[in-house]
Amino acid sequence: NAGVTQTPKFQVLKTGQSMTLQCAQDMNHNSMYWYRQDPGMGLRLIYYSASEGTTDKGEVPNGYNVSRLNKREFSLRLESAAPSQTSVYFCASSEYWGRPAFFGQGTRLTVV
Amino acid sequence: AQSVTQPDIHITVSEGASLELRCNYSYGATPYLFWYVQSPGQGLQLLLKYFSGDTLVQGIKGFEAEFKRSQSSFNLRKPSVHWSDAAEYFCAVGDGGSQGNLIFGKGTKLSVKP
After folding, report:
1. Helix-then-strand count for chain B, H and E
2. What gap in Å lies between CA A75 and CA A110, rounded to an integer?
3. Which range among A14-18, A91-95, B19-23 shows the weakest confidence by mean pLDDT?
4. What whole-number distance in Å separates Cα of residue B67 and Cα of residue B52?
5. Residue B45 — φ and ψ, nearest 5°?
6. B77: pLDDT confidence band, cut at 50, 70 and 90?
7. Does A98 sit within 8 Å of B94, measured CB to CB?
8. Average of pLDDT values for B71-75?
9. Running DSSP on this structure, what letter comes out for residue B100?
């Protein structure tokens, strides 16, 4: 029972490079989320998908795009990475929008 | 707008001592309230939740929390702390509706002295 799986766990990018963070859940959850965590800031929502086929911006969407590929998978793309995007990224899922979320282990991204 | 305040950035307690982590929220209606724990290098794990009903809720790992509407608080407690409880704790508020996003506090880091 894997829960929420994120890949990769660590990544270093150069400014201007692009990359996609992958997330998959095996709990048949409807809603999925991408958060970023920065020291002293708690977790901030980047994008969410309340149900398959829908995506919406969260609190800090600038510089990111998402794709809800199917019910299981929700990817986060950085088109042109910036040092300000250095952070730990968490994917989460929940049965329904607003219900308790289950989190992945995180991706630690450094942009140099 | 919804907001969550965790007044204590860092707390240190002795193993075996009791623990209370504070959480205050700002929300217009009855909120959904959550406590999460994050061990170093790990994701967040749900400790407990409050939706409605009994204002004292029990969670995993021996934690409990009490919802006090008059004080807009949802403090987390544990009668006797174990060294393995050292982690960061996050309070979150949500409404489960059209604005069902969870708003997280900035977290309280718990250290446990032997």
Report:
1. 0, 12
2. 18
3. A91-95
4. 9
5. -120, 135
6. very high
7. yes
8. 95
9. -
| pLDDT score at B56 | 96
- Shortest Cα distance, chain B CAs vs residue A4, angstroms: 10
In chain B, residues with a C-beta closer than 8 Å to the C-beta of A48 are 101
Do you know the residue count of chain A? 112
Task: Please state, in angstroms and rounded to a whole number, the distance separating the CA atoms of residues B91 and B27.
Answer: 14
Task: Catalogue the E-assigned strands of A4-49.
Answer: 4-7, 10-13, 19-25, 31-38, 42-49
Least confident of A35-49, A89-103, B6-20: A89-103
- Any idea which of A89-98, B7-16, B36-45 has the lowest mean pLDDT? A89-98
Q: Which two tokens stand for residue A1?
A: 């029972």
| Partner-chain contact A97 B96, CB within 8 Å | yes
Contacts of B57 in chain A (CB under 8 A): none
Residues of A in contact with B95 (CB under 8 A): 98
Q: Which residue has the tokens 């020291």?
A: A39
Tell whether A41 is within 8 A of chain B (Cβ). yes
